[in-house]
Structures are given as structure tokens and as C-alpha cells.
From TrEMBL:
SUPFAM superfamilies: F-box domain (SSF81383). It holds the Pfam family FBA_3. CDD domains: F-box_AtFBW1-like. This is F-box domain-containing protein.
């Protein structure tokens, strides 16, 4: 085995730009191992030019009360699913992944009313967030993201509480006047939750997506007389705004549709009456006229072992995970099937990997050595 002194002297013989170029090409799992060789290599591996998230380090995280991952299957096959072991899982055995941002996962307890963590699954570093005071219970929506203008990560939490008759929110199909909701914000550079005022919209409580585009988190509102709307929350000024939607896509106003990010643009997977799903993307952010239909995904019912699961997938839009390098679309059908879709041929291919859980939620994650200042 090469000793630390020899390792460091070997590195010193190479120009730093060459070392950076070599290390920047390593997959995230190799970069983690590289940083364990010696102190000098550890310091190099955490250089900001190397440790920041890279497209080549994309992976898929499968969440189902436990965390699994697979290095990105751009070849539409192969690979083995491996498991993460969060150091806090003993104190929070049931949890869900809110979202991924810059190599960090935001993880909350299954009800989103208590514990929450920011966790780098590849380094094991994490930050436990304090519980909001007073503790609130109700239907909860959580988002997490980074705004480059203020150089800060923020977690936002909204808890809808019923004002009068005590009915549980099941589909969000009631008026906002029946409920009270404030938004609380936690900046990772601070130590307390702050109130950012009242939430002026009743969001779709069954939607788990909060895509981050242009430093803003996005949600879809619950159905109302005015139809559904897309709402943004700016992490810089902490204000809600309505995002313009296309006039020539009727389904975007009424059907439930998941939001996503496609080629860096805000996108929506809109269900059509014929069973197809149209993928619309806003090519220039906040410009109504820039919405365009990027893809049409034909109707598809995956082969599922459980008839009840199969029925639950009917008449629902797909979740868009991302675009693959071969221009196919990676889609998920409500936590039971992962598939690639070729928009040119119109064919689907179910994807299954050894060790993959039966039920899951797929999160696109970019591995990095992004620091959270709590060593493990």
C-alpha cells in the first residue's frame, strides 16, 4: 500500500490543473474513496471545482422508508441497487425524501410535522433541523432549495390547519377560506425557523413535487373555480407568485399534473382525455409565450403484479424523472414501475434492477461532496 508521504509527493509532481481534470472525471463513489487515502488527497477531493455536483455523477435514489440508489442507468439496463444507511434512521425509522438539491437530500419524518434533516448520502454528513415552535399538526408541504443570488439553502414548510368544521383535507378541493396556513422558513446558515407570512393559495396536498427553477420552488394549486395554477416561492425575497400557464393546453387548468425540470426548464406532465400525457416546458422562465409541447407520451399501463395497483395507475399522468442521454424519457408510474420511453418509436421499456424495492418514489440525485458542517 502506498504511504501518505509517497502519495503526497506523487501528487506534488503534477500540476494542479491536471489533478483537477483527473479528479473531476471520477464518479462520486470513486471520489469518496480517493479522499480517504491521505490528508492531502482529502483536501484535494473537497476543492470547490471538484466537489460541486456534476452531470456525470447523476444517480437514482429510491425512497420507501429506506434509501436505495443506483448509478445513473444511461444504458437503460445493468447496474446493482445499493443501500444508504442514514446515521439518524434509528431515531426516525419512517421518513420520506422531500427533494434533492446540489447533492443534498432533504428528509423529513413521514408526517413532515417533526424531525427533518439535510443529508449528503455519499459523505454521511447531515444537519438536523430544529422542530418548529410551537409544533404544528395538519396537512404539510415541505420544499428545499438553493438560491445563487443570496448563496443560501432554505427549507420551507407549510402546514394547513382547518379553521372550523374539523374535516380532514383529503384532496384539497375546498376553499382557502376554510383553512389557515403560514409558511415557515429555515436557512441552513441559521438556527431557528422564521415565519414568512400567510400562504395565499391552497396547494394540491397530494402532490409531492416542488421543482426548483431560477431560485424558486414550484407547486400546483388545488382545483377551484378558476382552475389549477402554478405557484412559485422565491427563496430570495420569500414571496409567492403565479407562474403564467399556456392558453392552448386545456388540461393544465383542471387535471392534476406533476411538475418537473426538463433541460433546466420548468415542465408539466399533463394528462389528456385519450390517456396520453403531454410534456409542456416553459423554455424561458416566467414568459407565457415560451411554453411549448416538448413530448407526447402515449397511454400506457405497466404490467403490475397487484390488480389494485394496476387500477390505481389508470388515468394518472406519469412522473417525469429526467431525460436520458439517448433522448429517451425516464418516467415513473406512481411508485410501482420505472420505465424509459422513446418518443420517436412510441415504445416503453420497463426498467428493473437487482435489489430494487417493490414500491418506491424515484428521486434524481446528483452526487457530490457538498459540505454540511457537521462531521460524522
Amino acid at each position: 500500500m502506498v504511504g501518505e508521504g509517497n502519495s503526497r509527493s506523487g501528487m506534488d509532481k503534477l500540476p494542479h490543473d491536471i489533478i483537477h481534470n483527473i479528479l473531476s472525471r471520477l464518479p462520486i463513489t470513486s471520489l469518496i474513496q480517493f479522499g480517504c487515502v491521505c490528508r492531502g488527497w482529502h483536501t484535494l477531493s473537497h476543492d470547490s471545482h471538484i466537489s460541486r455536483p456534476k452531470e456525470s455523477n447523476r444517480c437514482l435514489v429510491f425512497a420507501c422508508d429506506q434509501l436505495y440508489f443506483i448509478e445513473f442507468p444511461d444504458d437503460n439496463g445493468g447496474g446493482r441497487v445499493r443501500k444508504f444507511y442514514p446515521p439518524f434512521c434509528a431515531s426516525m425509522p419512517k421518513y420520506k425524501v422531500v427533494c434533492s438539491c446540489d447533492g443534498l437530500l432533504c428528509i423529513a419524518d413521514s408526517s413532515c410535522n417533526k424531525a427533518a434533516y439535510i443529508y449528503n448520502p455519499f459523505t454521511g454528513n447531515y444537519k438536523e433541523l430544529p422542530s418548529p415552535e410551537p409544533s404544528q399538526h395538519g396537512e404539510t408541504i415541505v420544499g428545499f432549495g438553493f438560491h445563487p443570488m443570496i448563496n443560501e439553502y432554505k427549507v420551507v414548510k407549510m402546514v394547513y390547519r382547518i379553521r372550523n368544521d374539523g374535516r380532514r383535507l383529503s384532496n384539497g378541493a375546498a376553499s382557502l377560506g376554510s383553512f389557515h396556513c403560514e409558511i415557515q422558513v429555515f436557512g441552513l446558515g441559521g438556527d431557528i425557523w422564521r415565519s414568512a407570512g400567510k400562504v395565499p393559495y391552497l396547494l394540491d396536498l397530494q402532490s409531492s413535487e416542488s421543482p426548483l427553477v431560477d431560485g424558486r420552488l414550484h407547486w400546483v394549486t388545488a382545483p377551484s373555480f378558476g382552475g389549477r395554477k402554478i405557484i412559485s416561492f422565491d427563496l430570495a425575497d420569500e414571496q409567492f407568485r403565479e407562474v403564467p400557464t399556456p392558453d392552448d393546453c386545456a388540461g393544465i387548468g383542471y387535471h392534476r399534473y406533476p411538475l418537473a425540470v426538463v433541460r433546466g426548464c420548468l415542465a408539466a406532465a399533463v394528462y389528456c382525455r385519450n390517456g396520453d400525457s403531454e410534456i409542456w416546458a416553459m423554455r424561458e422562465y416566467n414568459v407565457k409565450e415560451s411554453w411549448a409541447k416538448e413530448f407526447n407520451i402515449r397511454g400506457y399501463t405497466p404490467n403490475l403484479e397487484s390488480p389494485s395497483l394496476e387500477q390505481s395507475h389508470l388515468r394518472r399522468p406519469v412522473r417525469i424523472i429526467c431525460l436520458l442521454k439517448n433522448d429517451e424519457i425516464l418516467v415513473e408510474y406512481e411508485g410501482a414501475t420505472l420505465a424509459s420511453y422513446d418518443p420517436k418509436s412510441g415504445y416503453f421499456k420497463n426498467l428493473s434492477f437487482h435489489g430494487m424495492p417493490n414500491l418506491f418514489r424515484t428521486i434524481l440525485h446528483t452526487g457530490s461532496i457538498n459540505w454540511i458542517d457537521i462531521p460524522v
